[in-house]
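# nightly structure sweep
# worker-07 picked up a monomer target from the shared queue
# config: single-sequence mode, recycle default, output format = C-alpha cells
# input follows
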Amino acid sequence: MAIFPGGKSTRINSPRHLTLRHSRRIIAAYQHERRRLAGISTLEEEETDPLPPGEQKLSSYWAPGLEAGPKHNIRVTQTIDAKNGDETLQLEAEQDFFVDAPQFSLPAGSVHSTYPPAGYSDDHRILPHVVLTDPHLPWERLGSPSDGTNKELRMRMKTLAAGKGGEPVRNRVPWLIMMSFSQDELRLTPQDLASDGIFRNTSPGVVKPVKQSSTMTVNMSIEDLWKLTSDVATPVTSDLGPESMKNSRGDFVFVETDLFQSFFSTFDTKGNRIPGTSPNTRQYQYMSHVRKINGSGMALAGVEDTAVFAIVVGTRSGPLDNVMPTTMCAHLVSIEGVERMAWPSKSHRYVALCSLHSWNYTVLPPKTINVPDAFEHLGRTLDVLRVPDSMIEPLRNSDDAVKKLVGRRLDDGYTLVKYHTQTGELTVALYRSPLTPSYVKPLENLKTSSNSGVDLQILDKQLGIMDVTYSVAWQVGRTMALGDEAFAAALVRLRSSIHLAATEAAKLQTLKDIDDSAFRTKSDVLGGLGGLVKNLASIHLGPRNDLPEEPGQPRRPPLYAPGGARRRWFRSRLRRAALPKLSFSSPLIRDKYPSAALKVARGLAGSTTGGVYDETNDPQSTDWMIVLSWLLDRMFLAGVPAHFLIADPNHLVPESLRFFCIDRNWIDALVDGALSLGNHFGDDEDRVAIKKILNDYIGHTPDGQDHPVQIPSYGFYLRSDLVTMFPDLRVEVLPDNAALGRAGQEPPSGAPLLRHEIVTDGIMMAFMDRLPGSAQFASLVLTQPAHQQRFAVARGLDLTQVKVDIRRQYTVEQSIRETDSQRHVRLDQVTYTPTGAASEDNIFIWGSQPDKGLGDLRILRLPRFADVQLNVLREKMPTYTDGTTEKPYFDDTVSTSALFAMQLNDPIYNLVIDLQGHPSRNIDGLGPGSAGGSETRTLRLLGAARVEKLAFGGHESATVPHEPDDEDGSQATFRRLESYIASPTALSRNLAPHVRALPTDSRGFDSAVSSVASASATKTLQLPSPSVGPASSPKYLVRIGSNRINDWDTITVEKENLAQDLVFSVVLKQSEVSQYRLIELDIQLELGPLTGSGADNHCLLQSYTGPGAHMLTNLRFNVLPSLAEVNNKNYLRLRLLPRAAKGWCNATAVNELSFLLALTSINLPIRERDDFTVQSWADYCRDPSLSLDPSNIFRILNEDTKVTTVRKY
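# output follows
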C-alpha cells in the first residue's frame, strides 16, 4: 500500500526499514554536522513541515491545481527573433486535454482503512469514516461548482498572498462523501430487479434478474445507467467527462427520493426540511479534511517518516432504538453533478448514486461495547508466548513423572508434532518456535556448521522423544534460500570469489614457505621486465655481466648453450616426492585456507571508502550486498512461514498480549541452512568465512552512531479486535529514565522498534532488542493512531437528547497550550432535545418529521453544529499572559472542517502497561539477567562442516612410480632414424607444454582381480558362491561406427582421412532379477601401425590425441580415456565409471552406455574393407558391505567386438 509522504519519500522496501531509516537518519545528521564544522557549504534539502513523534497537523483540504472532469485547454506562444532585422516569428499552439483521475471506481490501494472495520460492530454514536492514501482525492473533482474551479481557487490564493486583499478560502466541498444506510433502505424490490423492471432496457452485460451485492450495490456501465427506466434519476450526465466515459463501469446504489432530499437539503430552526431550488452540497465541506502525521510506532503508516491522509467522515449515526444488532451499509459516494441536477420529481422513485467503496458494519444496542475496557483487558492478559497456564497447571501438579516432564516442556514453549524418521516410520517429536517464553542459552554442543541439519537434532533422554527444533530451522533456512533465485546466485558467486582467491593465496603461501623465490607473482614478473632482454642475451650470446672479461682472454662460453634433444623443452622440475601437495584436501592447504578465505571475504565485505559495508555506504561487492541484506532479513525472521513462528494456536489466544524471547540458536541454524547452498567441497570453510564477516557487520558501529547494528532479541504478539479497528495502533517502548540515571546509564539511542507489522487481520507483531521489564523497556504504550480515531456525534446520544462536550481547541504553539492547566477538561457542555425548548435551532436532526418522535434521519445539522462549536470557543476559551498582554488561546473567526474534525473526534485512548510492576512475572524469565541491555547477537556455528573422505576402493596402485633423474644430454648429438615412430606412452610423457596428455593406466589386463571367462561361455564359468554373487551375468553389445546417419555399424574413411568422431554404442542385456553390481566397464583398442594383415601390425589407431570422450545419453556415468602398456603393447583404454559415491551401481539400473570419442585419427586402410578387434570387460562388486579392494572385485570378459572400416575413395 502506497503512503503519501507529503515530500521526499523515506520508504525503504525491507522488513528492516525501521532500523535502516533510523541509522541513515543518524548518519546523515552526523555527516551534515561534520561538514558544517569543517566549513564546507552544503545544500540543504527542503524538509516539508517535519512533525515530532506523536503529533499531527490538520488541513481543511488539499486541492490540486486542476480538477478532473471538465475539458482544459493549454495554449503556448513563442516569439522567435532572428537578430537580423525587425521581423519576428510568432508561433502559437494549443491543446485540449482532460485530467485523468478516478471517477466511478478507485485504484487499488486508495483506501488505507475504514471505521468501523468491515464486519465489525460499534456504538450507534459512531460516524463511519474512510481514510484515503491520496490526500488530494476528495478534491480531484468539483463537489460544488458554486465554489469555483481549482484554477480560480489558485488565482485567488495568489492574489491573497500578494497582499491585494480578499478572504482566504477556508473550506471546500469534496466530490466524495460518506453515506450510511440500513439494508432495508437500499434493498430493491423483486419487481424492480426482474427482467421487466427498472433494468429492462439495459444491455446483456447486466444479467437479469439483477442481483444486488452484500452492500446493496449494482454494477453496470454508465451507458446502461442512462438506459434505466424513467423512474430512476441520476446526477451522472455526459457533461461530467469525455465521450468515452460511457464505457466506464461502477457500483451504484439506489436511494429513495425522499431520503435523497433529506441528505441534500437544509433545515430551519424548527427542524423542517427546506429543499431549495436544487440539491445543496455545501454542508459536506465540514466532513472531509487532511491529516499529516508522524508515522513512528505504526505498522502500516510507519513505512514513511511522515504520512498524509485524506479523511472523509459520514454525517449519519446508527439507529437509536435498536434492541438487536443492526447491519449498516457504508458507502463512499460521488456527488459530482448533484448540485447541478434538478430535484427528483414525483415520478421518480430512486436516485442512482455511484459508490466507489462500500462495506458493512454492525450497530450494537447502547452500552454493549467499550473501547477503554478492551484496552484494559489487554493489559490484564499479558503473558509469555506458550499455552495458557490453565492447560499446564494440571501437568505441573500431577503425581506422574512423565506428565511433569511434559509440563516442563510446555512451560518452555514446546509442542508435539508429527515426525517421520529417516526410515519412514511415523512418530512424534518436540518442536519449539524461535519465539520462546524464556531465555535460551547458547548451546555448547552446537558449534559446527551442518551439511544436512540431522546432526542438529537433540534427543530428550528423559521422554525418549527427539527434539527437531534446530533441524527444522536448518531446513527452513535452506528451503527459503533455494526459493530465492537472486540470493542463491549471489551466494554461489560470492563463494566462488572467496574460494578462488583464497585457494590461490594458500597455494602461494605454501610455495613461499618452501622457498621464498620458488614462485613469482605477476607483480614480481612485471617488476623484472626491465632486465629481461639483457638477461636473455647473456644466456645465449655472451658472458655473465657479473664476470668482467679481460683483454686477450678467450671469450667465455655463454651461461646456457644449446643442448641435445632432451633440452628442447628444458625446465627443471622437482621429483614427485618433493612436489608439495597443493590440492584442496592437502594438509598444507587446509591449514592456510581458513585465514586466507577470511582475509578475502573481509575484502569483499568492505566499502568503496574503506571500512565495513554497513548499508549506509557503497559496497565493494554487490554480491555481498545481496547476501548480507538477505541474511539480515532472515535474522529478523522475515519471510519465515507463520506456522514455524507460532507452533500451536493455543500459544496466542484471542484478545491477548504475549511477549517472547528470540532463540539465537534457532537463528544460527536458520542462517547455517541458508548458507549451506553452493558448497562444492567437502570442507566448507567458505561458509565459516561468510559467517565471520557477517559477525563483523553485526559488531560494527557505523560513524556517527554510538551503538552497533541492532538485531532483535525480544518481541510481542498482540491479538485483538483493536488491531482490526486500528491497524496503525501506535506502539511506544518507553525506558525508565530515573532508573537508568541511578545506574549511571544513558537512555537507549537505537530504534525502539526493529520490526513492526500486521501479520494478519487482528494480529500485530513487534520486535525489539530491549528486555521487557528492564530499565530500558519499563513500559509499553498502545495509543489510537491520529488518522484512525473514531468520530462520534456526541458523548451521549439517544432518542431523547444529544449531549455534546465542547472541547478546548488552540491556535497557539504547543508550549503555550501546556500553560493551560485545564486543557484536558471540557470547555462546555451543550444539550439538545428533539422536541421542547431545547430543540430550538438544533444541531442534530432525529427524524424527517419534527415532533413525531421519528429516528429515521439521524444526521448532523450543518453548518449549525460547526457554528455552535466556534461560538463557544470564542466566548469561553481562556487567555494567557504574554508579557503584559492578555492573549486568547483560541483566535479564529471561521468554522473549518479541520476544527470541526477535532470536535467530532472520540476521546483518544491509550494503554500504558507497566512491565516492571505487572502482576504477571512470567516475563522475568525472558532475559539472561537484570541488565536488560541489548545483546550482541553474533553467529556461533563457526566450525567448518566437513565430509569424511571415503576410502579409495579402486585397484590402482598407490605407490609412486620411480622417476629417473633427467639425463643431462647436453652433449647429445644423435638423430632419430627416419623410420622411428615414438610409442604413445613415450609421447604422452614428453609432450610440448601446450599439448594435453592422456593419463597412463598402469593396470595390466591380468591384474589382481579374479577374472572369469567370456560372458557367453557361462557353462564353463567358475562363478562366486551364491552368498556373494548372482547367477547370470549381463551382456554388453558393443558397436563402433562413424558419426553418420544410417552408417552406425562401420567406420567410413574418406580420401583426406580427417580426424572424425566415433560413436561407441553399448547396449546392456540382462535378466530383470540380476543382482550384479557394476564397478566399471572397460573397452580397449590396440594402438599401432597398419602395415599388413598380421595380428601384430593390424591396429585401427596409431595413437589418440583428441579432446576426449563424453557420454551421449546416460549422464550417470563418466567415460575416461587413458593409455595403457601391457606386454610391450600400447592400448587406448576407455573406462566407463558410475557417478556413485559407493563406487558401484546396480546393473539393472543401466540400459545403455553409449558415448562419443571425439576427433579420432584412423589408420589409412590398405583394403577397401577391413576388420579389427576390440576387447571389453566389466568389473563387479562381490559384497557391497566390504570395501572395493581386489579381493572384493571380480571381472567378466565380453566377447571381442568386430569393427569394420570402409574405404570410400
